[in-house]
Amino acid sequence: MNRPDLKHLIADELAQPVDPRVSDAAAAIAALYPGARAVLFYGSCLRTGEIDGQMLDFYLIVRDYREAYGKRWLAWANRLIPPNVFPFERNGVAAKYAVLSEDHFLRECSVSARSPSVWARFAQPVRQVWSADENAATLALNAISRAPGTLLELVRPTLSDDAARDVLEIWRQGFRLTYGAELRAERSDRPDSIVDQSPERYRAIAFAAGFPRDIGLDEAGTEVFRRAWRHHQRRGKRLTLLRLAKASLTFAGGVDYLAWKINRHASAGIVVKPWQRRHPLLGALILLPRLLRRGAVR
Asked: Mean pLDDT in the chain?
C-alpha cells in the first residue's frame, strides 16, 4: 500500500473549519502585533468543540520578536525562554496565546527542540485560523508537519518492538512522556484519552510518517532511551517553572487562571488570596510545594 503524503494530511487538517468566534479572536490577536505571520488553534477546546465558559489556546507566530513588541524586555524574554504567554478576551471568548518567532517555531517542532512542549502540542490536531499571506501559511505547515515525526522518532526507542507494533501505543507513550516533562494538573489518564478520542487520525498520521517500524533494540538499548527521557522530563519541569515565573510578569490575572485550571482538572480546592494576586510569583512559589505533595500537579 502506498503511504499518503504526511504534509498533505496535515494541510487538510489545518484547513478544516472552526467556529467563527475562534477565527474572529485569532484575527484580533494578530492585529495586536506588527509582523504577525500566523495564528494556530489547538488544545482541548479544539478537540471537544467547547467554547462557552472555556479558555481557548492559540499560538501566534511572528516574524521577529523585536518587531512584534514595543517593549524590548518582552522581546528579550521571548527569545531567552520561549514562548511568552498572554491572556485575551473578545466578545465573551476567553483565550490565552503563546508567541513564537518563525525561526523558533521551526526549531521547536523538530528533534532540535529545547523541550518537548511545542512539538507535543502540534503532533495533536491543530487548525490554522489566520495567516498573513501564502508564504506565512506555508512556513507554518512546514513546521507543524515536523511535529508528529519528531514525537514518533524520539519516543519509539523507549518501547520494545512488540509493544510498538501497535502505533497507538507509541502515541500514548509519547503523550505520557511529554506530559511528564511539564507540571500538569490533568488526570493521569489524560495522555491516553487524547489518542483514544481520535485513534484513526493517529494511525493515519503514523502510517504517513513511516511507522510502525522495528528498530531492533534489546532491553538494555531501550533503557538507555528511557533514561534519556527521564533527563528530558526533569529539564522540562525546570523550564516550566521558569515559564510560570515569566508569566507572572506577562499574564494579567494569571494566578486566577492557574487556580481555575488546577481546580478544574484536579479538584484541588485552591482559593486565590488577595496578596497572591498582588505578588503572583511569590504566591506560586509558596503554593507549588503543597500542590506537588497533594498530587494536584505532577
From this structure: 86
